[in-house]
Structures are given as C-alpha cells and as structure tokens.
Amino acid sequence: MPQAIAYAIDGPTGRFVRTTIERREPGPTEVLFDIRYAGICHSDIHTARGEWGPARYPLVPGHELAGVVTRVGSAVTKFAVGDRVGVGCFVDSCGACEQCAAGREQFCESREKPTVWTYNAIGRDGLPTAGGYSTCFTIEQDYLLRIPDSIDLAAAAPLLCAGITTYSPLKRWGAGPGKRVAIVGMGGLGHMAVQLAAAMGAEVAVISQTRSKEADGRRFGASEYYATSEPGTLRHLRRSFDLMVTTVSGSSDLTGLLGCLKIGGALVDVGLPEHPVELRMSTLTNGNRILAGSNIGGIAETQEMLDFCAEHGLAAQVEVISGEDINDAYDKVVASQVRYRYVIDTSTFTA
Predict the structure, then answer these.
(1) Measured on CA atoms in the order 206, 301, 68, 45, is the torsion positive or negative?
(2) For the whole model, what pTM was predicted?
(3) Which of 12, 21, 10, 17 is nearest to 130 (CA)?
(4) Is pLDDT at 276 greater than 90 in this prediction?
(5) Which CATH number does the domain 3-161+297-350 belong to among 3.40.50.970, 3.90.180.10, 3.40.50.2300, 3.90.1170.50?
(6) C-alpha 27: how far from its chain's center?
(7) For the residues 101-118, what does the mean pLDDT come to?
(8) What is the reported pLDDT for 134?
(9) What mean pLDDT is reported for the chain?
(10) CATH number of 162-293
C-alpha cells in the first residue's frame, strides 16, 4: 500500500508531529496523487482541538489539497498522470440520493453511505479518513477536481474550501451588477468573498472590526470599507445592502447586521459562530429580510468556482509554511495574524 509522510495530532491539547500513514491502493476508478500543498482552515483547528466534539485521534487534518496525479486505476477516464488536481471537504457519498443527484453531495441523505469527509470520518475502506497534511492521497475520480493551469498550486489549495464556501452563497443569492454586497470579516474566507463578489460585478463593501486591512480590501475589489469599532457604523449602514455574507465566527448579535439590509435583502452566514446567537425577529419581519446559511458546495459547483477563478485571475493570498510550522500557525490563525491563509508545503515533510 502507498505510504505517506504526514503530520498528526494525538489529542485536543497535543501538538503536531511527523508520522507515517498508509493510503489504499487505487481501485479501478480511483486516483492516487501527490499532495504538493495543503491549506490550513480554521475548521481544522476546531476539529483538532476538540472544539466541535470528539475527534478520531491520531488526526491528520486538511481539506484544502492541491497536487499532481501519479497513478490512475484501470477504469479511470477523467484524469491522467500529470494532471493538476485538488480535493476539498469531502471525498465520497452515495451518488444516488436526491441531494447527490442534484449536485449537492455535501448533503447526501443516505443512511448506509452518507457524505464522507476528507478527515475525521470513516472511508469506503472502513478506516478513519486522513486529510491533506500528508504527501499523497487516494480518491474516487468523481470527487476529484481539476485545477486550471493558470492558478498556482499553492494559491489554489484554499479555493477548495474558502473559495467554494464563499462562491456558492454569492452565486445563489445573486451577487452581480446592480447589487450592493457587504462582506463581514476579511480573513481566510472574507478575502476570497471580496474578490469573488467584485469579479461577479457587484459593488462590494467590507465590514470589519478595524481598518487594519482596508488597503488589502480595496486591492481585492472593495469600493467601501467600514469598521465596527467606530461608533455608529452599523446605524449609518442601515438599509444599505442587497446581500451580506458574514464570514466571522465570533458574532453573537445578528440584529445589527440584519438592519443593514435593504428591504428583501439576505444575510448569509458561513462563519459558524461557536456560541448561540441573538436575533430580534422584528428585524426580519419588518423588512421581509432573509437570514440564511450556506455549507461549501458540490463537486460540479466547486469545479465551476475553480474555472471562474482562472477566468478572472483570482486566487487565495497565502503564506507558505513547512510541516514544522503547523503548531505555531494554528495559534496565529486563532489570533488573526495570518494574511490570509497558511498553506503547508509538503515537500518540507521529507527535509
């Protein structure tokens, strides 16, 4: 069986250490590829530190994978050795239920074969799945994405989560010409949301805690930038936006944000606050406003996002690190000290 060098953590208070794991031999319709880069998503941190419930340790996180195909099964028709490919948040599903048929594999409804997440799940071989903090990966061809040649592999990796997480709600809720769109928070998710909304033709504003990232926000395509630390900001923005996408995980009061929507506008959450949020229902009903959520996207939509990014010259802004930097990077992500996504260079695993 193919072996991979990986970085794993053995418990919620542990530290990442180098180890060796086994990948399954690719079956007839499966692909084996070398992982070149793996992004660090905040959800990796929540999972590794047990903040979202029990995890399967030792844990190898990572669901933003970019690499190059090295082997293909005998019946593989979609990929060839040498192709540039990526894997996002899930690696399998039943493929037959209503949601899978509609291209929403992340919501697979099968009880026998539900969505299989890239890590911290049980794969088709009955073993715990291990993610992208490793040097190779085996996957069914239907769950593999093609990375366009024009996108650098390191910058492509975060698109497999941060890119699709923000592309999907922007597309669904009609970001485009004639629409005013506000992106709340400009971290790993938000900096992609600003670029995508601007490329879709919307008039884009950033609502952040401070103005420390204003120059970046305008460089990414925002024409307006607001800081909630400045008194009266949300009051000033009442009834301003057709669509708002909030990417922050620390918000507890949505009422102020909802008030910034125009009549009939939508506020979409992709930030997954850890704690219950407060909401004054009259803010919704008095303006026919919509509060919605969004969770990544299916395979077809993720490929659509990658092609859109290639067409418009978009990519994640990354800081490339080594495997030995993972522990320090986790602390810096929590402290909002990265601009805007850490990406692990797996060639450092064998150094």
Answers:
(1) positive
(2) 0.96
(3) 21
(4) no
(5) 3.90.180.10
(6) 28
(7) 96
(8) 98
(9) 96
(10) 3.40.50.720
